[in-house]
Design goal:
The structure holds 2 protein chains of 2 kinds. Chain A is mainly α. Chain A is built from 11 helices and no strands. Chain A is globular and about 70 Å long. Chain B starts with a strand and ends with a strand. The chains are: A mainly alpha, B alpha+beta.
């Protein structure tokens, strides 16, 4: 039972503030989605319903190649980040406390704290050196950069899941004749799976909409969907960008809904 | 009758930490656990009983010493290579598996054929009376039912020794009593050696064939419940198990002189000042005029239903408690009455310290 003596919802002005906050948060997004269906060229005057901006975007080869590139990077980077994050989470939770544990925890989460622009400049310089040494110009740089900043996002839900797990479960598996690998495969991994899925999806979404680091690291002709859209905005604002944005929004909403469903507590 | 030793603990030391900061959780413990017996490690928290259990299971390695199973040194084997299973205090049931899958886990890991896993699982479900719940997830079970699953899971691979780490501590009193009987039944039916860890002396006395009393990482005494209760070797064992009166005395020819006068006949070779332990139910109240009785005065009287506890003071102030069946002499024995005390023959114990 809730304590009736103090309830935030009963404070004066609560409803007004809450509604204002939601309007400010969602009105621009609703406007963006609405104008993606506008028949005219304007992003400010409604001229009737049409799907032709979606058709335009679909027919645009630049959009297609940027989308494919974005997906390749997001899938690869989130796969790498999730693997690294899973190992890091196992290493920091499924054992006795050790010296330097806090330091490692901070180090893993450092990319969350360092300003993204700093990382972007650092990577630009560092990859510049690597490029002159190796001559390699491919997507590897973007995948590596994305994997790096996605790792803490994947790490947090996996670690949270592990911390809620009884440490004696693996001990019990070992007691029941499971080898360390069998104990991991049959007990740890199945119990950890929802955390890993949540981490992977979060990493995927974070990679998919990154602009700053991608803009600095990409070579010529390596536009991802967000950097392509940024480039388009510099010329003329077209409802085609609205359509692409709406598409990205839909994908993100689906993934985050799945993330929420996977991480909520089952009772 | 020859008794076969299943687990032999040989001079085992377990130290945590290093150098001066090292803590000896087990300090030179040696112990034989016999085949098919219900052996209890009894002691207060921190006495090392759980550490000893974890060493037998293989979750910890001894710092020094050896652990033998049927004569073979298993000290260096990992837990999955030891034919020993554990019932954990937290049960540690696998939450993603059903009751039947939990019970079959050990057999599967041993690589037994599916038909055998199924058959044994069924037999175990019947043994712990959970047939109806085979397909449930363990989170849907009550504490008592989870306890039974944990037992069945550990018994299914037919280990040589079953280790139980305070398995009843999470249950309420009524359920605990039921499970005590249940555990004893399972042990008798399966014939498996049980090593049971508890801090509950009553649990230890009622269930065990033999008890090892531990304190501060050392084994204080090993014996049957009756031996431990009636002939404790030292003050710790005497006070940890049941209630005891401790009386200062001096060894004299033929026995020990208690306080001011009376000599209690008891066999001791220990000279000088000693401590005599006597259980309250072995202290009898007689008339003050009784020759050879220890003079005392009743100070208080506490009624417990079937029993009444009489608190008494000796001439030198030492407190003694006597437990008598209620309804006998209360009218006569009121606080302030001068009486005499006699000890049941052979009941007084001269302690080592």
């Amino acid at each position: 039972m809730a304590d009736r003596s103090f309830e935030v919802a009963r404070l004066p002005g609560f409803a007004t503030i809450a509604i204002t906050a939601f309007v400010i948060l969602y009105l621009p997004i609703i406007t963006l989605v609405a104008f993606s269906f506008n028949a005219g060229k304007s992003v400010a005057v409604w001229e009737g319903f049409s799907l032709h901006w979606y058709a335009d975007a679909w027919a645009n080869d630049d959009v297609k190649s940027a989308t494919v590139r974005s997906l390749i990077i997001a899938v690869s980077a989130s796969a790498i980040a999730t693997t690294v994050a899973t190992m890091a989470a196992l290493g920091t939770t499924r054992r006795r406390q050790f010296k330097g544990q806090t330091f490692i925890y901070v180090a893993i989460n450092q990319p969350l704290m360092v300003p993204e622009i700093v990382t972007a400049v650092a990577l630009l310089i560092f990859f510049g050196i690597v490029k002159t040494w190796t001559g390699y110009q491919g997507l590897g740089y973007l995948i590596a950069a994305h994997a790096a900043f996605c790792t803490p996002f994947a790490y947090l839900p996996i670690r949270a899941r592990l911390e809620g797990m009884d440490l004696s479960l693996e001990t019990a598996a070992a007691d029941l004749y499971a080898t360390p690998w069998q104990a991991f495969r049959r007990v740890t991994l199945p119990l950890l799976a929802p955390g890993i899925m949540a981490g992977a999806m979060l990493a995927f979404v974070i990679s998919l909409d990154d602009v700053v680091i991608t803009e600095f690291v990409k070579s010529g002709g390596q536009d991802t969907l967000p950097t392509y859209m940024l480039g388009q905005m510099r010329r003329a604002i077209s409802p085609e960008v609205n359509a692409i944005s709406t598409g990205l929004l839909a994908l993100t909403v689906i993934l985050l809904t799945a993330f929420f469903l996977l991480t909520r507590k089952k009772d | 009758m020859t008794t076969q030793v299943t687990i032999a603990v040989r001079n085992v030391v377990k130290a945590f930490g290093a150098g001066d900061a090292a803590v000896r959780a087990l300090d030179d413990v040696s112990l034989d656990i016999r085949k098919g017996e219900f052996f209890t490690l009894l002691g207060p928290s921190g006495c090392g009983k759980t550490t000893l259990l974890r060493l037998i299971a293989g979750f910890e390695m001894p710092t020094e010493g050896q652990i033998l199973l049927d004569g073979t040194d298993i000290s260096a084997l990992p837990p999955n290579k030891r034919p020993v299973n554990t019932v954990f205090q937290s049960y540690a049931l696998f939450p993603h598996l059903t009751v039947a899958q939990n019970i079959g886990f050990g057999l599967q890991m041993q690589g037994r054929p599916a038909a055998e896993v199924d058959a044994t699982t069924k037999r175990m479900l019947a043994l712990v009376k959970l047939d109806a719940l085979a397909t449930r997830k363990t989170s849907q079970l009550s504490g008592g039912q989870q306890q039974r699953v944990a037992l069945a899971r550990a018994l299914a691979p037919q280990p040589k020794v079953l280790l139980l780490d305070e398995p009843l501590s999470a249950l309420d009193l009524k359920l605990r009593k039921e499970m005590q009987i249940e555990l004893k039944r399972l042990q008798t039916e399966t014939g498996i050696t049980f090593v049971f860890v508890t801090h509950d002396q009553e649990e230890a006395l009622t269930m065990s064939d033999r008890i090892g009393v531990m304190s501060h990482g050392k084994l204080q005494q090993t014996g049957t419940p009756r031996e431990i209760y009636t002939t404790p070797v030292n003050r710790f064992v005497a006070s940890f198990i049941g209630e005891t009166n401790f009386l200062p005395g001096t060894t004299v020819p033929g026995g020990v002189r208690i306080g001011s006068g009376a000599v209690v006949e008891t066999a001791t070779s220990r000279p000088g000042d000693v401590t005599v332990a006597i259980r309250p139910e072995q202290v009898r109240i007689v008339a003050a005029s009784d020759p050879g009785a220890i003079p005392a005065t009743i100070t208080n009287l506490v009624y417990f239903g079937t029993d009444t506890h009489f608190h008494l003071a000796l001439a030198d102030g030492t407190e003694v408690v006597s437990r008598l069946q209620s309804g006998t002499d209360e009218a006569r024995l009121t606080p302030g009455t001068a009486v005499g005390l006699r000890f049941a023959p052979g009941a007084a114990q001269v302690l080592e310290d």
